[in-house]
Every structure is written in C-alpha cells, then in structure tokens.
Design brief:
By secondary structure, this protein is mainly β. It is 4% helix and 43% strand. A hairpin with a 7-residue loop joins strand 19 and strand 20. The radius of gyration is 24 Å and the shape is elongated.
Length: 364
C-alpha cells in the first residue's frame, strides 16, 4: 500500500449487526473471475469464466474457453473419433452424506451448442455464454462445474467453484505509531425496504434480522436498540460495539483506545447482498481498518471474501469482547482518500460468526 499525505485512520472490527435506511446507497456489482485449465479424455480446455450475482442468482459468463481435440492422447475415458457437443451445461451437485454413491444434482442449466471437434478440425472456442444457478443451490452444493455433452457422453470441464482459493489480505506496511480520534459523519445507512440476498451454505440460509436462540445469548439482546451510531472517543474497554447487543469490549491495544467508534448492528451479519452499504464521510484522507472475528475469517476463507474487503491488508491488532461465544477480532486496514467511504455486507454464517463494528483515527 502506498501512502501520501494521509491524516486520518479508521479502524473497523467485524462481528454482527442489523439495518438502517440508506438515503444514498452505492450500487456495486460483485464479479469473480475463474481461470480454467485442464483435460478430460481426448478434450483439452483452457479459458475464463466470470460470476456475477443478482438478488437470488449467480450468473456464470463463459468469457472464452479454448477447446482442443487430441485423439492421440493416451486415455481410458471418453475415447471417441470426434466430439460432437450438443450442449454446454453447469451443474451444482452434492455428495451423499455417507460418502458413497452418486452425487445428487441440485440444479443444472444448459445452452445448446453445435461444436464438432475432429482430427482434421481439432479446435473451437466457447464464448459469451451465460448460465445461471440459484444462490440457494450453490450454497448447498459441494461441487459446481461445467461440462460438454453429445447427449450420451459428458466431458467435464473440471472447475469447482468451492475449491477456488479466495483472495485474502496480505500483511500491511502502514506506519501507525500514534493514533488519535478522527471526525466522521454518518451519511447513509442500510435500507430496510429492499429484499436482500442472505448468506447460504449447507447449513441453510440466514434470516434477515438474525436473533440468537442460545440461552447464554438471549439476555444480551438489546430490544431498545438504535440505528448505527458514531460515538466520539467511544472505543475503549467497556464500550458497547453493537447497538442491538449488550456485549462489551474487554481487550484492545492501548494504541487504539479513545478512537471514534462506529456502533453497528449484530443482526446484519448474514446479509450477503452487494446493495447493502453503510456510508461514512471523512474530512481528510484516512486509513480504514476492519476487524473480523476469527470465526468469520474462517468462513470467508472457505466461501470467499466479500469484494469490498479485498483491498484491505492485515495488521497485528486484535480485539476481544465478552461475547459468550468468544473468539477475538482480527484487524485489517485500507488507505482511503477524503470523502465518502462505503462499508459493505459481512456475508457470513450467523450461527458461527459476528458482524463488524468500526472506529476512526487520525494518522501521522
């Protein structure tokens, strides 16, 4: 990260939260790119697929996949004199719980194609083909992949969405010797009138306004909650980081104590929609710090980091609370210019993680 004339630092911690009305939402499209390369039988393939998300679906765009027919290749599956593909398809499948037998097809989508590969004409290209799966199916699947079929044989294009390594933060090189509280404004809050996409995996789909049923957590719900709130010099031991929970901060580095606190709502942690945003305004350039509870970090490592967090770097800071489920918060950082700063969705499993809270500081 390159720093020039920076004057403010913002620090954020990811745990659990809920919603407020966003007067000026920031539209954004999450796009993941998958590089594909491999072979099956006499088919060799290489190319790129992009995944875009809508409210309830994932749209997979085959940007381009180069196909090569190699009849001289020594194989023992799908040995044919030609590949006359009639369809390109995408499937979401799940293995049986006992680990034996055929996988269950949760959903498939397909498009017709008329590709014929022969020894005399061994190459072809798939491009600009869109296939769609629901987020619910992808969340429950343990494999998402492509394939070509001639109606009898299937040539899998071995790409598994669940095994693609997500982008994770690298170690920061930012100098943070002295941090002082910074002035922040709350510009807009999450909208409550939108039907937002929720995090979904094999455990199920998160609810919009998550409330715990664990007996140790129920007494810590704050039913007299307010919206997201900025508290001047509010970050300190004993501070309450969430407006809808009674958890307090029990441990934080002395360097961070006394910074400007942004209280969030724990109940928003299961939201996974790119339209979710909390918008702040900083009067000077700043460092924006985010801190994830360790369980949330593990979930992001498995299912992918929300795109708005991909520009953050890791720090050595850690924060703890008296949440009975425990788990410290790991802190991450990003440099931001003065003006508006948008925070996105936590996109995590409600039962196993927490939403983020935030705090701001001037930089040297």
């Amino acid at each position: 990260m390159h720093l020039k004339h920076t004057h403010i630092a913002l620090v954020f911690a990811i745990g659990c939260a809920s919603f407020l009305r966003a007067q000026e939402p920031i539209a954004k499209t999450d796009v993941k790119t998958y590089e594909i390369k491999g072979s099956y039988g006499t088919l060799i393939y290489e190319g790129k697929v992009e995944r875009r998300e809508t409210e309830k679906e994932f749209e997979y765009l085959i940007v381009n996949i180069e196909l090569i027919f190699d009849p001289a290749k020594s194989v023992n599956v799908n040995v044919t004199k030609e590949i006359a593909a009639k369809e390109i398809l995408i499937v979401a499948t799940k293995k049986p719980s006992e680990g034996k037998g055929r996988s269950t097809i949760l959903q498939r989508d397909k498009k017709p194609t008329s590709i014929v590969l022969t020894e005399g004409s061994p190459t072809a290209t798939l491009e600009k083909i869109k296939l769609v799966l629901t987020k619910e199916s992808v969340g429950k699947a343990d494999h998402v992949g492509l394939g070509l079929t001639d109606g009898k044989l299937l040539w899998p294009i071995t790409w598994d969405e669940q095994t693609v390594a997500p982008k994770l933060p690298q170690k920061t090189t930012l100098p943070m010797k002295i941090l002082a509280p910074a002035k922040l404004e709350l510009v807009s809050l999450p909208r409550t009138d939108l039907k937002l996409t929720m995090f979904s995996n094999e455990r199920g789909t998160a609810s919009r306004d998550y409330k715990p049923t664990n007996p140790s957590l129920v007494p810590l719900i704050n039913n007299e909650q307010v919206a997201y709130s900025i508290v001047d010099r509010g970050l300190k031991s004993g501070a309450i980081p969430y407006t809808d929970r009674k958890f307090t901060i029990t441990e934080l580095p002395e360097k961070l104590s006394g910074l400007t606190l942004l209280q969030t709502r724990m109940s928003d942690k299961g939201i996974a929609d790119s339209r979710f945003s909390v918008v702040l305004r900083a009067t000077k350039p700043c460092y924006l710090f985010v801190a994830f509870r360790e369980e949330t970090t593990l979930i992001h490592e498995k299912y992918g980091l929300p795109s708005w967090l991909e520009e953050f770097d890791a720090t050595d800071f850690a924060i703890d609370t008296d949440n009975p489920l425990r788990g410290k918060y790991r802190v991450f950082v990003k440099h931001c210019p003065s003006g508006r700063i948008a925070l996105g969705a936590c996109a995590s499993e409600p039962q196993m993680s927490s939403m983020y809270f935030a705090f701001a500081a001037e930089a040297e």
